[in-house]
Design goal:
- By secondary structure, the protein is an alpha+beta fold.
- The chain has one domain (8-265): Creatinase/methionine aminopeptidase superfamily (Creatine Amidinohydrolase).
- It has 5 helices and 15 strands.
- It has helices spanning 13-35, 43-57, 123-141, 149-162, 260-265, and strands at 60-61, 73-77, 80-82, 96-105, 108-117, 168-169, 175-177, 184-188, 205-208, 211-213, 219-221, 228-230, 236-238, 241-246, 249-252.
- It has a 5-stranded antiparallel β-sheet with strand order 8-7-9-14-15. Strands 1, 2, 4 and 5 form a 4-stranded antiparallel β-sheet that branches. A 3-stranded antiparallel β-sheet has the order 3-12-11, with no helix packed on it.
- Helix 1 runs antiparallel to helix 2 (43-57) and helix 3 runs antiparallel to helix 4.
- The radius of gyration is 17 Å and the shape is globular.
- The mean pLDDT is 97.
- The structure holds 2-amino-4-trifluoromethylsulfanyl-butyric acid and cobalt (II) ion.
- Cobalt (II) ion (CO) binds next to loops.
């Protein structure tokens, strides 16, 4: 039985341990995909790398077959923001490639994404990805017991605003609760005022995933019914981690060290 105050699943320690196993598979796969993200590789090559990691670990894809999704990875290049389907596209120097991957172990899910530069990228593109990554960690650092849900998105938005580049934050796509399914309550927006929504409690887990653009945050879905691109064709970055709320601080399940180093740099204690 799950206790679900406000509809949010509360995990037992054993269930969180399975989510951690899934999270480490995700971390492995993303590291392997990032290393394979070189000029001349196709986006399908990256999908094969991720599929191999799944097989090696005996884990299951969270994405394959999800509402009919045809791959284990989402690969979104340049003006594509999220949900790009791996295929024949050849990566080139200067591309910014967002790689998103989810896996489950014994039915418990982990979900994370990184944005990877292929060769040298334009300065503003590198800065965009750094800002989105920093915003992610600010959000994760806010995922502490007794905080309010929207404290997370407010921390994300504050980071992007403080970067002072006028970057956009997607409104149409948000983060999510995660656990016995990949997408669960609550929705985790990357914007808006703090101090609203349910109180975060130990045993909850959320996927925080800022999607940040160089220009307008308005997006369009392609004819393939999946790929989401910016309307103004400006580049986008996407960074994501799955984090559990614990009595001892945020536990970043999809980070090899549980988030300890990044959180310590932000002055936040973690159980890892
Ligand atoms: N990982 C995406 C998210 O962050 C979901 C991918 S959709 C799928 O929520 F169909 F590819 F699974
Ligand atoms: Co997600």
């Amino acid at each position: 039985m799950f206790r679900r105050p406000g509809g949010i699943e509360i995990k037992t320690d054993q269930q969180l341990a399975l989510m951690r196993e899934a999270g480490l598979v995700v971390a492995d796969a993303l590291a392997a995909c990032a290393a394979a993200c070189v000029a001349g590789a196709t986006t399908r090559d990256l999908d094969a790398v991720a599929a191999r990691v799944l097989t090696d670990h005996g884990a299951e894809s969270s994405f394959l077959g999800y509402h009919g999704y045809p791959a284990v990875l989402c690969v979104s290049v340049n003006d594509e923001v999220v949900h790009g389907i791996p295929g024949d596209r050849v990566l080139r120097d200067g591309d910014l490639v967002s790689i998103d991957f989810g896996a489950s172990v014994a039915g418990w899910h982990g979900d994370a994404a990184v944005s990877v530069a292929v060769g040298p990228v334009a300065d503003d593109v590198a800065e965009l990805s750094r800002t989105a990554r920093r915003a992610l960690w600010a959000g994760l650092a806010a995922a502490v017991a007794d905080a309010r849900l929207t404290d997370v998105g407010a921390a994300v938005e504050r980071t992007v605003i403080d970067a002072g580049r006028g970057h956009g934050i997607l409104r149409d796509y948000v983060g999510h609760g995660i656990g016995s399914r990949m997408h669960m309550e609550p929705a985790v927006a990357n914007f808006g005022p703090p101090g609203r929504g349910p109180r975060l409690k130990p045993g909850m887990a959320i996927a925080v995933e800022p999607m940040v653009t160089l220009g307008s945050p308005d997006v369009v879905v392609h004819e393939d019914e999946w790929t989401v691109s910016t309307v103004d064709r400006s580049y986008a970055a996407h960074w994501e981690h799955t984090v559990a709320i614990t009595p001892d601080g945020p536990w970043v399940l999809t980070s090899p060290d549980g988030g300890a180093a990044e959180l310590a740099a932000l002055g936040v204690a973690s159980p890892a």
